[in-house]
Write the structure tokens for this entry.
Amino acid sequence: MTRRQDGALEADVLRALWELGRPASPADVIEQMQTDLAYTSIATILGRLCDKGQASRERHGRVFLYTAVSEADLTASRIRSVLDAAQDRASALAGFANSLDADEAAQLLELLDGTR
């Protein structure tokens, strides 16, 4: 087994939850990931994701079932965090907008026009 950084493992666990598309136990996640990582390791990562607000859990009998926030919600939260940390928010937004390709910029404009 190759050793992964925690951030990469968290991303893999989130991806497994999204692929499952339903509340899942650590055993379900292990099966989806096709990994030999220990149940306790996956349960620890799932707990960390809950602590970060990236997943939620509900007890079902003796196990917890975990549900990830949507990928769209997670991405929006990350973008918001970066903007909140920027000293010059307008420049950060301009830099982001300038980095978009034409199709992405058109999509963003459509979204913004739909919210007004």
